[in-house]
């Protein structure tokens, strides 16, 4: 028996490759599927099953493509309805994979069809669970994504409580926990940086598995502090239900080199968004006017999903050398399939063609501190709600990047704003969006709040996030 966790840091997502006696199961695959096929081929094994723990909202799964390429059966939990052929498992139904058995444990709560897959080894011993978004390390899945007219988040939270108590907690302490996500995912609140754990450890450390916890306490605690879901979640969930374009087709049409003139024509005639995925320092030095910065070196795909509202938006890319395929691939993981090409030769090609460029003023934290002391400075803190609530500069205006599209009336084009985040990535994203909407009096604070804390500027008293 072989179990391999295939973890993608940008999405904080874990897919799984399971192999036994020449048969393979893939759990929650990514959009690009060739690597799974290659692994099976190398082992002279056949992919038999594709198990989906639920309809994912934070990424587009590769299950449809993988099934078409391999003939594998897609398995969802009870009640799942799709536009393509699946096997909807019954609660406690078992599936043979070589010498091992995989049992479907229906664990509704995160979503109605959410299912945990229990792996039973060759000796009949419970070995591991693939818990999807039902159980994370340190947390549980948010129960507010499958709300219907007759079903509230409180109803789903109550279902999740029962699922955990009746299906997960009775398992032996040494059963391994393989979750779908780790720290950084918006599918939970306080996910651990660890990506593999055990039932016993979670019973000791996970607030949601306290033995003396009542259902009412669970509902209150699991719902406390949940931020609104990113706008792309519902769109990705729908793609996972209805299907999507073949990944290789998306890559072929999106990874096309464009001359400076063709690039400009597409921007103008197709109303294509110019997405600059280089580093923030490169963007600061020179960029195409009205382009949006979301760098590949940060939480690229989730920020694209959170900030670009139209999932079908035509996109053209400014990329570092050799990174065009990676950019198109990572966009497709969250359903942004309408990439039309990239600027061949990068920003240098644009400059050589005599096209206009723009820059962004960026100053050090020490220079920023001097400016604050010298007079009235407008400060935009674009960190998230929890970061800002923990501690922030006195007189800073909170302008969370997550909700920038809903906050544009809170800023004025007549003012100059100094923008900071925690480390410098999100502030440049925010500045690029503001610049594209006609705000030109902007100053980025390099190093963000981490650097600002080293100055003597007054800040609010620190409040531990766990007590907020």
Walk me through the topology.
Blueprint lengths: L1 E7 L4 E8 L2 E5 L6 H9 L3 E6 L11 H8 L2 E4 L10 E2 L5 E4 L2 E7 L8 E6 L5 E7 L20 H16 L7 E4 L17 E2 H7 L9 H9 L9 H10 L4 H8 L2 E2 L1 H10 L3 E4 L3 H6 L6 E2 L6 H8 L7 E4 L5 H9 L6 E5 L2 H7 L8 E3 L1 H10 L3 E4 L3 H6 L6 E2 L18 E4 L4 H12 L5 E4 L2 H5 L16
Parallel strand pairs: 3-4, 4-5, 5-6, 10-11, 13-17, 14-15, 14-16, 16-17, 18-22, 19-20, 19-21, 21-22
Antiparallel strand pairs: 1-2, 2-3, 7-8, 8-9, 9-10, 11-12
Report on the structure:
The strands form 4 sheets. Strands 1-2-3-4-5-6 form a 6-stranded mixed β-sheet, with helices on one face. The chain has a 6-stranded mixed β-sheet with strand order 7-8-9-10-11-12. The two termini are 45 Å apart. The protein is α/β, with parallel strands linked by helices and 468 residues long. The chain is globular, with a radius of gyration of 24 Å. Helix content is 30%, strand content 21%. The longest helix has 16 residues, at 153-168.
Structural class: alpha/beta
Instruction: Give me the count of strands.
Output: 22
| Rounded average pLDDT | 95
Cα shape? globular
**Regions with little confidence, pLDDT below 50 for 5+ residues:** none
Helix content: 25-40%
* Count of alpha and pi helical runs: 16
β-sheet strand percentage:
15-25%
How many angstroms does the end-to-end distance come to? 45 Å
Order of adjacent strands in the largest pleated sheet: 1-2-3-4-5-6
Task: Report Rg.
Answer: 24 Å
Major sheet details = 6 strands, mixed
